[in-house]
Amino acid sequence: MFPLTPSKRAPESDIADIAEKVWAQERLTADDALRLFYHPNLDELALLADAVRRRLNPEKTVTYIVSRNINYTNVCWVRCSFCNFYRTPGDKSGDSYVLSREQIRQKLQELSDVGGVEMLMQGGLNPKLKIEWYEELLSWMRAEFPHIIRHCFSPAELIYIKNISKLTMEETLTRLKAAGLQSIPGGGAEILTDRVRNFISKYKDTADEWLDCMRVAHKVGIPSTATMMYGSVDTYEDRVEHFLRLRALQDESIANSPARFTAFAAWSYQPDGTELGGTRASGLDYLRTIAISRLMLDNFAHMQASWVTQGPKIGQLSLRYGVDDFGQTMMEENVVSTAGCTFAVSTDEMERLIVDAGYTPARRNTRYERV
Fold first, then answer.
1. Domain of residue 236, CATH code
2. Is 82 part of any known ligand binding site?
């Protein structure tokens, strides 16, 4: 049985040497990150993370995007123990689905009508859907709504499309890019250690497979985001390894590829009604984790808030812990809401939250260009 809480270690009362590294713009080590996880003074972590945020994004601006989640199918054979959204192939409950073109058209039209610029499309690993289905869907969406950026399909989906279609990862991504794929969301990363991944789902792709998918995406010119879902069965050591592996791949992509990770977002595991169960991570744990991610991921330009799982007030606080982007307006969300998470805000409310926190709101697109 793996531990359900982080391993114990004596609090670190003095991080002056780590602070000196931050001021000198020196890269932090794994041991530095672990010491920060056990440092009792969150205000000091906020000070350091905010310094990095202001160095990388000096304007007193917080961006956000008008986007919509579209979950095109809930059929999935992987059976992740933390997920309450999936229905297995052949499910007899009557609520498994694949969205029709007309249903997708309606969702995209509603997004377009409010000035939306991005669709975030993800779904389950549905054995009936091979690469031709995705190519036709992307081509159709590009023709019908060319102004909406297609930010689609997590690595788990892309790996499955590759396998079920008997292609290489490069062939898969090259074909999907030609059909209209413009960006890849970082979902399915969970924690990039196989110890954790094997515990939450024995069928899940490995950490190396997730990273290789993103490596190839960057190689063929498709940018992506990176994420972390913490608070399930992970330890602080697991979280640090996650940061190190993302940072190493970003270094590699910056050096060798035309695309890279555009942003990082962390959110806490939502246990309600899931097979895995457990307890919900606290807001303080979130603030600590996002501050350390800002300090460790020194080659990532942007950090997104996770108000969807933490709530808008913690989202506001995170703007002092290294976050420079408030993420997306939530027209629709189906996955974490099935685990009891129901936070949602309008565009006007999002701008009010940003202003009340002392920043100027600015709309962006998937590429972090202002719109």
1. 3.20.20.70
2. yes
